[in-house]
Specification:
This protein is α/β, with parallel strands linked by helices. The protein contains 20 helices and 17 strands. It is found in: Cytoplasm.
């Protein structure tokens, strides 16, 4: 009875409910004061990021401004037409909103703006305030896009960069990225009486403290995963270790295996266990289950002592040493090899070095999302001009290595809405904990690059395209793409924003091999490769005619459902000889040193 009276009293006196909420509000305010002190401390320890690595050189914008001014003088009608079109749409929307409001309707006017998942909350469509903000933002974005796209007087590279970085500015200014104009965040704050904002501030400060004062949003719950426990769990042994890498040999899961072993070289920009996340999507486990003796390289993480490690070291002490070790362990003359991304590029360089030296270690090579022709560098090319590369060169000259922070930041901005803004909204505005997502956990587990190697790769390959043109100097030779003569199977991904598939295709075309297979998988740089048959996702296409242009190849390609793994497995089996009794990891000369996944994947360096 007392409870009912109290409830009725509060309903009759709204101020009673407000008074009841005051202790919680006061607690949150006190918590915010404490968090503010932590915030100031984190910001005061902010790392110094070179100006050259924070954005394109000012010359890009000044040239664009000059071009726009010249166009305005020389062709004023075009500018006037653009502005009148923009003004007309903006004013018409304002008039429609005013008319709806004048009729006493709390409803939004007609909304013909395109669908955008950032604006999924129904209030963006129905509420006049939020809909007005959304429509005005979309009109501004369209006007900016049109102005940049139709700008004349810039070369193709400059125009691509201007389009990319103008999109970054437009995306950053979306009303969804600000608390006062985000209905999801405002609703959550009211429903939780401010708790969501306090949790969001806690999340933000934790990210700042973990990243030397840089705001790098956590994409995954780091406490949910442990490498070697619930990631990278396929059984195996480390059978070799040097200053460059650990070599893992995986335990067989079949009684018989193919004679010719397989070795995978993952990119050293990230850690190898992207191929062994969980049993359900592990390419490593799948390969072992198909009856192959599998070795995988786990690269050492660079630090200041890696300053002078270059591409030649990767070829000599990495690839050639790994080939020799696997040949001896398995008592075979040849191996099959896989290179993923930059590791595929370096595998191709190693093949040319071996040809020059008369070494015949490799029976076939598979290239995952690999660039060997850098004439078109795709979306990532906006970060490969001298302004950025000069900044990287200065950074590695001082530090001796390229911190993983810079590579991670670069790749994140290629998908900023998915990898920066939406995660930040969930974490900082809604106060949600990062998801327990294995792929995103791996994405945040970056590695550093040796200083010398980073510059050789960026200057000689990415910028100057020497491997596909004049020759790239490595290991005492001038490596040329035409000297890659072993059988090749290349897998590229249609929406890859790091290794554009058309460039990958063009590189395969230039190789000297008479036995070439090209597979185009759906999706992107990671999901297109980590695409197990059980998921039945994405699909892939093939075309035996590699003499045509990329567009011609795609137009004539045959579409297949599901994963490309089984097709590649059949191709690889034909290159792998007869079946023999399964091999256990190691040999008399190379006894097991430690269980997989080894120690290099768990820390920066083994001393």
């Amino acid at each position: 009875m007392t409870t009912d009276d109290s409830t009725n009293s509060e309903s009759r006196d709204p101020s009673a409910a407000h008074r009841a909420a005051l202790p919680k509000l006061e607690k949150n305010m006190k918590r915010i004061q404490d968090l503010t002190q932590r915030l100031m401390g984190a910001m005061s320890n902010k790392r110094k990021v070179p100006q050259d690595l924070q954005g394109p050189a000012p010359e890009l914008y000044s040239k664009a401004g000059t071009v726009a001014f010249q166009e305005m003088i020389q062709n004023p009608s075009k500018i006037i037409e653009q502005q009148i079109g923009y003004w007309g749409k903006t004013l018409q929307h304002f008039v429609d909103a005013q008319q709806a409001f004048g009729k006493g309707e709390l409803a939004a006017p007609v909304d013909d703006t395109p669908t955008d998942r950032r604006f999924a909350n129904p209030l963006w469509q129905s509420h006049p305030y939020f809909n007005f903000l959304k429509q005005q933002y979309m009109l501004n974005a369209q006007a900016m896009d049109k102005a940049v796209t139709e700008m004349e007087g810039l070369d193709d590279s400059e125009k691509r960069r201007l389009e990319f970085f103008s999109h970054q500015i437009v995306d950053m200014l979306s009303p969804t990225n600000f608390l006062a104009t985000n209905p999801d965040a405002l609703t959550k704050a009211v429903e939780t009486e401010g708790d969501s904002l306090v949790r969001g501030l806690e999340n933000m400060i934790a990210d700042l403290e973990a990243n030397d004062g840089e705001l790098v949003v956590s994409l995954a719950d780091k406490s949910a995963f442990t490498v070697g426990e619930n990631l990278a769990t396929t059984p195996g042994e480390v059978v070799f270790r040097n200053h460059m890498f650990e070599l893992i040999q995986y335990a067989p899961s079949t009684e018989k295996v193919h004679t010719t072993p397989l070795i995978i070289f993952p990119p050293w920009i990230n850690k190898f266990y992207i191929l062994d996340l969980k049993a359900q999507n592990s390419l490593i486990k799948w390969i072992v289950d198909q009856g192959f003796t599998l070795f995988v390289v786990s690269w050492a993480n660079a630090d200041a002592s890696s300053r002078d490690i270059g591409m030649t070291d990767y070829v000599e002490d990495g690839y050639l040493t790994a080939f020799e070790t696997v040949r001896e362990i398995c008592a075979v003359k040849k191996v099959n090899a896989v290179g993923y991304c930059i590791a595929g590029t370096t595998l191709s360089l190693s093949l040319t070095v071996m040809k020059e030296r008369g070494i015949d270690y490799v029976n076939s090579a598979t290239l995952f999302t690999t660039l060997t022709d850098f004439s078109d560098r795709g979306e990532v090319g906006v970060f490969l001009n001298d302004d950025f590369v000069d900044g990287i060169e200065a950074e590695v000259k001082e530090a001796g290595f390229l911190d993983s922070y810079f590579m991670s930041k670069t790749f994140s901005y290629l998908r900023s809405n998915d990898l920066i803004y939406q995660p930040a909204i969930r974490s900082y505005m809604l106060g949600e904990a990062p998801p327990a997502f294995d792929l995103l956990y791996w994405n945040g587990d970056g590695t550093n690059l040796p200083g010398k190697m980073a510059i050789e790769y960026l200057r000689g390959l990415c910028q100057n395209d020497k491997f596909a043109t004049t020759g790239f100097d490595v290991a005492g030779i001038s490596a040329k793409i035409a000297d890659v003569e072993v059988p090749i199977c290349a897998i590229a991904c249609e929406s890859d924003h790091i290794a554009a598939w058309k460039s990958s295709y063009q590189g395969v075309q230039k190789m000297g091999s008479k036995d070439k297979t090209f597979i185009l998988s759906g999706s992107g740089h990671i999901a297109g490769i980590v695409n197990p048959p059980t998921k039945k996702k994405y699909g892939y296409c093939t075309n035996d005619d590699l003499s045509v242009s990329p567009d011609g190849w795609q137009a004539g390609a045959r579409q297949h459902e599901g994963s490309w793994w089984p097709m590649w497995g059949d191709w690889l089996a034909k290159k792998s000889g007869k079946k023999i009794d399964a091999r256990t990891p190691g040999s008399a000369s190379y006894p097991p040193l430690a269980p997989a996944p080894g120690s290099y994947v768990l820390r920066a360096k083994v001393v």
